[in-house]
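Aim 2, interim progress. The first record below pairs a target sequence with its C-alpha cells.
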Amino acid sequence: MEKDIGPEQFPINEHYFGLVNFGNTCYCNSVLQALYFCRPFRENVLAYKAQQRKKENLLTCLADLFHSIATQKKKVGVIPPKKFISRLRKENDLFDNYMQQDAHEFLNYLLNTVADILQEEKRQEKQNGRLKGGEADDDDDDGPEPTWVHDIFQGTLTNETRCLNCETVSSKDEDFLDLSVDVEQNTSITHCLRDFSNTETLCSEYKYYCEMCCSKQEAQKRMRVKKLPMILALHLKRFKYMEQLHRYTKLSYRVVFPLELRLFNTSGDAVNLDRMYDLAAVVVHCGSGLRALQTPADDSPAPEGTLGPVRCRTDVELLSGPHVQNLNPTAASPRRSWPQNRAALPSPSDKRIHRGVSARVHLSLQGGPRLTRPVTRRLCLVCPWSDRVSVTLRRG
C-alpha cells in the first residue's frame, strides 16, 4: 500500500496501521483510530506506557496497542488489537457479545474509564505517600483531580435560566466530554450547534420554580459554552424514538461538515472566543438499524498536517465543494448485511456516490483481503447510508 500511495505522502515518524475487525469490533476500531491520531491523547497514552505499570487494566492495554503501532518498522500494515478487545469484554458486559455496538457509547466509556483509572492511581499514590518530595497530601479535596483526559476533551456548559416575572437570571455550570446535538433536514454542523443553544420557553406544566418569586413562573432557558475544550467531540443524534412506531428510527438527513469551525454559542464570560477548530476525524455508523457497521470515514493514510485516518484541509480540492458533506441515501438503497472479519465491498451505486473511494486501502486497514483494482485518490469523507456520525474537531 505504501508503494501504491507513494512514500512522499507519509510524514516522518508516523505510522498508519489498520486494526483487525473481530467480527463486530468496527465501532471500537474506528474510535481507536481517531484517538490514535489525536496527538495530545496519543502522547499521554504513550507516556503512561513508559511508566511501566504492573497491574493490567484497560489503559495499559490501550498503551500497549498504541506503543505497538508507534514502534513498527513499517509505515503501514495491520495489527490485531486482541489484548485490548479481550480486556474490554472482561470489564464491560455491554461489549462482551457478538453484536455491533455504538461508537459514541464506546468513546464515552473509554474516556471515562481512562480518567477513572488515572484518578484512582493518583488517590493510591496519596495514600501511600508517593507524591513529589515523598510527602503525602492530607488535604480533603472536594472531588477527584482532573486528568489529562479532562485537559484534552473537557469543556464547560452554562445553563442560563431567566425568570420572566422578576427577570432574575440563574446559571449552573456543567462539564462535558462531548456535545450531543440534534439534526434536522438539510442542515449543517454550525446550524446544529446554533439550535443547541436556542432559547427555550418554560411554560404550562414545565414552569420554572423561581427562588426569588417563591413560586413557579414562566422562564426562558438556554445553554451556552463557557469553556471551550482543546478538542471538541460532537455527536449527531441520528436516532429518534417514534411513538407511533414504538421504536427508534434513523434520521437520514444531509448534514454539511465544515473543515473549520468557530463556536458562536458561547457565554459572555467565555475565554478564547476566537478559537478555531479544524476537522480532524469522522466516525460513521453505517446501516439502517441501531446495530450496524461503523468505520472511519476515510481509511486512507493522511498526509502531513492532518490527524490521521481522515483527510483534512490538504484534500479540499479533491472534494466536491467547499464543505465535507454527509450524503443522503436514496430510498431504494438496499439494506446491507456485512460479512464478519472483513470490510464491506461497495456496491455500484456506492462507488458512484463515493466517487472513487479506494476499496483496496479500506480493506487493507480493516484487515480484510486486498483487491487488485487501482487506488483512486479522490475521497468522499462519509458513507452515504450513514445513520450516526461522531465528529472530532481539533483546536486551531
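The second target in this work package is listed in the same format:
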Amino acid sequence: MPKYFQPTIRHNISSKKNF
C-alpha cells in the first residue's frame, strides 16, 4: 500500500472513489 493509504486505511474505500 502507498504511504498515503497508511493513514487512510479506514478511508481506503472512500479514497478509491476519489481516485
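The mean pLDDT is 58. This observation will shape the mutagenesis plan for the next reporting period.
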